[in-house]
Structure formats: C-alpha cells, structure tokens
TrEMBL record:
Its cofactor is NAD(+). This is 6-phospho-alpha-glucosidase 1. Gene3D superfamilies: Lactate dehydrogenase/glycoside hydrolase, family 4, C-terminal, NAD(P)-binding Rossmann-like Domain. Mn(2+) binds at residues 171, 202. Belongs to the glycosyl hydrolase 4 family. Binds 1 NAD(+) per subunit. Residues 197-414 form the Glycosyl hydrolase family 4 C-terminal domain. One of its GO terms (biological process) is carbohydrate metabolic process.
Length: 443
C-alpha cells in the first residue's frame, strides 16, 4: 500500500495565489495527501498576513498537517517534496513600471509581453535561480513547479544555467482557455479534452482538440471562437474582470489570422498592438486593477479570518491556477503519465524550430518529470513568429548573463511590438533607471 504523504513548499507564500492553492491542497487530501505545508517569502510582513489565516484554515480543516512559514531558506527548503514557486521579483510596484513605461512611449505595456516582460525577466532570473539552488541544497530530491513569470525567459535561463535541475516551468493560460473550450462544447472540464498544442509560453496554438471518444471538437470550438472569442459569459464568467473580458473576446480577431488553429489569448499583444495601446489608459493599467481587486480581496479576507479567529465562512476558492499545479504534483508523485502542458527545452518537440528554444508543448508527467511529446512541424506563419520571439527571449537572457546594453537593446528592437530601434532605446533607458535595484549593471 502506498501510504506516502508529501511535504509542499509554496515559495512566494505572500502571493495572491497562495490561498487558492491551500484550498486545493485541502480538497485533494485523499488523492494527494500532505503531511506538511511550508511557506517561504522574502517579505515577512506580507507573507505573515496569508500565513496567519492559513494557520486557522488548517487548524479547522486538517489539523494533522504541520505548518511552517519562514523567511529563512534553510528552514523553508528542508524536508520538502514539492516546491510550488510563484515569486514576483519587484512586486506590483515594479509591474506598474513594466506597464507604464512602454505605454508612455506609445508601446504595449504588459506583465510578460514586450519591453515590460523583458524588464520583468531581467529581475526574475536571479530570484528563481536562487530558489532552485536552495531546493538543490536542502531538498535535492524535490521537484519545483514554477509559475514565476515571465515563464518564457525564466525557462530559457534555467535551461541554460541550471540544465540538470528539477524545475518544470508552467503556465495556467492554456488551462483557463481549455476550461472555456470544454464549456463551449458542453463538457465538464479541461480534463475531458485531448489536445495538441505548440509554441512558446504565452505564444502558442492548438492544432487538434478531441473528446475522449476521438470526436473532433475543433469545428465547433472554431465556429464559436470566430464569433465570441473565448468569452463564455453567464455564470462561467460572473467574476471575470473587464480587462480579461476584452482579452477573451479579442481572441476572435486573433483566430481570424489563422483559421486552421486556435490561438493563445496573449497573441493579441503581438498581432494587434495598435488596438491594445489605443484601448489602454496609461495612468491606470492592469496592475492598478489587480491591486484594487485581487490583492485587496485576498489580504482583506486573510485579515478578516485572523481577526475572527475562524475560517468557517471562508470565500477563497480553488481555481484553474491552483488545480493545475496540484494536478501536476500528483502526476509526478504517482507516476501517472498524465498528458499536460509544460514549458521545456524543445529538443525536437517542434521539428522545424531551434532545438534549444524553450517551447510549450504537451508532456507526459510522471516520476521522471515532464517527457515532451513530438508536435511535428510549425506552419510558416507560426515558425516566423516563434523564431523571432524566441530570439527576443534568448537576447534578454544573453543581456542578463553578459551585462550587455547592446543585447538588451537588440531584444527590445527585435520585439514585434516595438516599432523602431529609437523608441526601443528610449524605453530601455527609462527602464534601466526604474530597475536599478534589480538588474545587473549594463555595459
Ligand atoms: P504577488 O506579488 O502577490 O506575490 C509574489 C510574492 O513573491 C510576494 O509575496 C513577494 O514578496 C515574493 N517575492 C518576491 N521576490 C522574492 C524572492 N526573491 N524570494 C522570495 N519571495 C519573493 O504576485 P502574484 O500576482 O500573486 O503572482 C505571483 C507570481 O506568479 C508572479 O510571478 C506572476 O506573474 C506569476 N503567475 C504566473 C502564472 C503563469 O501562468 N505562469 C499565473 C499566475 C501568476
Ligand atoms: C494568466 C497568465 C499568467 C499571468 C496572469 C496575469 O494567468 O497565464 O502568466 O501572470 O494571467 O493575471 P493578472 O490577473 O495578474 O493580470
Ligand atoms: Mn502564464
């Protein structure tokens, strides 16, 4: 009988996503039992607000689970089986700059896309590598599932600088979209879909979607998406914020460019940057919305639980973000070979793309981590887009490694959403000042 129980560490314990993960872990005590839950963050007061509420939730729902929240790497990373990483180096204050600096120059300002995403990448690399090194030092047999963004640049950096480490980079966007696809065709959830998908992170396409009997669902989904994008509406979308509504709807225009595939929502920033900038408020961007909504809700709710000393009327919920990362841990723990997406070195998964690109493709998840599945050839449109964007990501990592101003200017200039090298330089120079506490000093 397999009576193992696992120890899980959430790195970035102060993340707005932490309570959702805690609830999902509690929902899965039967099929992924945990003996210990640990939090690690480098911002003690932020983490404490979530930890204090979590302690009460655990006391009421799973008192047998040991709970530790720490800012000490040795205490946090010792005796751990799975690390769920979700740090944001520079926090929302820097995300705000990533969005507003490009917009001030008339360019898309976005968390993981364009100059904002590259700037975030140069902050994240050392933070995530530090987590990997703590894991290898204190729990060398553990696996890290990493959500910390920008996942494409982080994954390129870990591929190069920690090639043997047990980190698997992941994203919840295709997961969210697949829950929408399932709703569109009247299936219960994403696990009812069998799919083929390829691309880079936040930059990919579905090429085939079937139900478990092999029935092709692409025609029905395409017909719906051509009209509505991925917007489902009704009960499904009752908590979806306005900016996400517009992104899901815009997928109709992204789809129109290649009706042979179904696109990731993030392609809107690359294919319709003019529209995105015209519809942005340069003084009130997504960061402001997140701080006014998700961050406020999460921390207010934690404070309320702590003040009341009970979590009986808790409103936190499991969602696609938390269920995906728990599904992945369970698949590795029990060697299930479940087919799910990961962001991993290409090495042939997309035949006509650089083998050293870091791509997002379906993998079989089991005791050896993620084993990539071959997705065949990218069509010319996709190959062109992927090759350019992957070179942007590689140049960003080159710039971080070599402390090179020129490489970073090249990354900004090559990026599809930046109109010319002069604008790229203006944005870059503003970003160097804003990121002075985080970036390597560029020469
Ligand atoms: P958040 O700012 O609420 O939480 C991030 C936490 O990380 C903060 O508590 C912060 O103190 C901590 N932190 C920052 N630098 C750290 C370091 N070097 N060491 C330890 N802790 C550190 O952010 P959030 O909105 O909850 O998002 C968390 C992360 O998850 C972000 O990187 C976000 O982009 C990412 N994310 C990724 C996906 C995906 O699809 N891959 C989905 C959702 C969120
Ligand atoms: C999706 C993406 C993440 C991204 C998040 C931003 O979930 O997959 O990579 O971090 O959206 O959401 P937010 O609500 O913070 O703007
Ligand atoms: Mn993502």
């Amino acid at each position: 009988m397999d009576d193992r129980k696992f120890s899980v560490l959430i790195a970035g314990g102060g993340s707005t996503y932490t309570p959702g993960i805690v609830l999902t872990l509690l929902d899965h005590m039967k099929d992924f039992p945990i003996r210990k839950l640990k939090f690690y963050d480098n911002d003690a007061p932020r983490q404490k607000r979530i930890a204090d509420a979590t302690r009460i939730i655990l006391k009421e729902r799973a008192p047998e689970v040991e709970f530790v929240a720490s800012t000490d790497p040795e205490e946090a990373f010792t005796d751990v089986d799975f690390v769920m990483a979700q740090i944001r180096v520079g926090k929302y204050a820097m995300r705000d700059q990533d969005e507003k600096i490009p917009l001030a120059h008339g360019v898309v300002g976005q968390e993981t896309t364009g100059p904002g995403g590259i700037a975030y990448g140069l902050r994240s690399i050392s933070g995530v590598i530090e987590l990997v090194d703590y894991m290898e030092k204190y729990s060398p047999n553990a696996w890290m599932l990493n959500y910390s963004n920008p996942a494409a640049i982080v994954a390129e950096a870990t591929r190069r600088f920690r090639p043997k480490s047990r980190i698997i980079n992941i994203c919840d966007m295709p997961i969210d979209i697949m829950d929408r696809m399932a709703a569109i065709v009247g299936l219960k959830d994403r696990n009812d879909l069998v799919f083929r998908y390829y691309g880079l992170n936040h930059f990919g396409w579905w090429t085939d979607i079937r139900d478990k009997t092999g029935k092709d669902l692409m025609p029905e989904i395409k017909k719906y998406v051509a009209k509505n994008g991925y917007w489902v509406g009704g009960e499904f979308d009752k908590n979806t914020e306005a900016s996400w509504e517009s992104t899901f709807k815009k997928a109709a225009d992204v789809y129109a460019l290649d009706p042979t595939t179904l696109p990731n929502t993030y392609l809107k920033y690359y294919l319709y940057p003019k529209y995105v900038v015209e519809h942005a408020n340069p003084h009130h961007t997504r960061t402001d919305e997140v701080r006014e909504h998700r961050e406020k809700f999460v921390f207010d709710e934690c404070d309320r639980i702590t003040k009341n000393g009970t979590a009986r009327d808790l409103t936190f919920k499991s969602d696609e973000h938390s269920t995906y990362i728990v599904d992945l841990c369970r698949a590795i723990a029990y060697d299930t070979k479940q087919r799910m997406l990961a962001i991993i070195p290409n090495y042939g998964a997309i035949e006509n793309i650089d083998p050293t690109a870091t791509v997002e493709v379906p993998c079989l998840f089991g005791a050896n981590g993620a084993e990539r599945l071959a997705m065949g050839q990218a069509d010319t449109f996709q190959r062109g887009l992927i090759t350019e964007q992957n070179c942007v990501e590689k140049l960003a990592v080159d710039a971080w490694e070599q402390h090179s101003y020129t490489k970073l200017w090249q990354a900004f200039s090559l990026c599809k959403i930046v109109p010319d090298a002069e604008v790229a330089k203006e944005i870059l120079d503003d970003m160097i000042i804003a990121n002075k506490d985080y970036w390597p000093e560029l020469k």
